[in-house]
Amino acid sequence: MLPNVLQPNATDHVPVLAHEVRASLAVRPGQTVVDATFGAGGHATLLAADLQGRGKLIAIDRDPTAHEYFDRFEKSARVSARLLRGDFGVVLEQLAENGVRADAILLDLGVSSMQLDRPDRGFSYSVDAPLDMRMDTTQDLTAREIVNEWPERELATIFRRYGEERYAKQIARAIGRRRKEEPFARTGELVDAIKAAIPAPARFGDGHPAKRVFQALRIAVNDELGSLEAALPAALEMLRPGGRLAVISFHSLEDRIVKQFLRDRERGCTCPPDFPVCICGHEPELRAIERRPIKPGEAEIAANPRAASARLRAAVKSGGDENGADA
Ligand SMILES: C[S@@+](CC[C@H](N)C(=O)[O-])C[C@H]1O[C@@H](n2cnc3c(N)ncnc32)[C@H](O)[C@@H]1O
């Protein structure tokens, strides 16, 4: 029987790298935890359990439907919890500016299984649906606007940059031709245009032929990389000394941003390498917990194929003891 994809169900969501996230954040009773990508509350439920009835959980999500999951979560969480709806880049910055401090912050990036499985949201290339792809359904920009109105050159750039699509130019040109006759309205029309634009052998290669263009459009619609770049410094500012940050990314563009941020803030000294002594006096702001990203094991991938591309990076903010207590 096919799953009823229109009925959100908190139990059908499997949080990715659950054990590894818990180990990296090492949440203890009495702490304040921020789950900046609440989704269906899978990770939040585990982290709230680690608070053992004492502490606070702040949930953030830009998707207005997150409150359906949050209401259910709140009833069983046994800790003080609240949901803030908005872009985590903006909300974390506001919390930090208002002096709110946290001991653990999680970012589990990208779309949730529930968003992907709800055809009306237009994230999936396997179901015909309106061309939408907004995580925040109140924002103006949709995939439909990008596909129908952005110049071909810009389309080719995002397909190449955000989707690493080899046939970016050909696909952008095909979109340009087709939309002159009739604007795109549905995902199925876009999938057909992509398939027709790429050489036949490439249609049977690396996954679904529309996979990379859909990823690129989703990143552009939701400005996913811009939000991540804004969120990382705000999260670090919000953390108490010894507090921990964990980020799960699902493609190399995100992972590169996280890796570079951790590396820069871990380095401390910003003097040119040929200076004999440090004159900048900058101290390292954090310590990465592992050098390499943590990946899911075979068993997790077998149980949840969507976990395959997940990469977890985590760090401890400088200045506290390594267990998360203030110095
Ligand atoms: C991969 S899911 C998180 C799943 C969650 N960890 C769980 O266990 O249920 C990502 C969630 O983060 C939200 N999200 C993605 N980017 C966001 C952003 N910039 N600001 C706020 N929420 C965002 C999405 O709407 C989605 O619900």
Question: What does this 3D model show about the protein?
Answer:
The termini are far apart. The protein is of the alpha/beta class and 327 residues long. The protein has a 7-stranded mixed sheet, sandwiched between helices. It contains 13 helices and 7 strands. It is 42% helix and 13% strand. α4 packs parallel to α11 (224-238). Residues 1-11 have low confidence and may be disordered. Bound molecules: S-adenosylmethionine (SAM). S-adenosylmethionine (SAM) binds at residues 13, 15, 37, 39-43, 60-63, 66, 87-89, 108, 110-112, 135, 227.
Write the layout of secondary structure elements.
Elements: H1 18-25, E1 32-35, H2 42-50, E2 56-61, H3 66-77, E3 80-85, H4 88-97, E4 102-108, H5 113-117, H6 143-149, H7 152-163, H8 168-181, H9 187-197, H10 211-221, H11 224-238, E5 239-249, H12 252-267, E6 286-288, H13 298-303, E7 311-317
Parallel strand pairs: 1-2, 1-4, 2-3, 4-5
Antiparallel strand pairs: 5-7, 6-7
Helix pairs in contact: 4-11, 7-8, 7-10, 8-9, 11-12
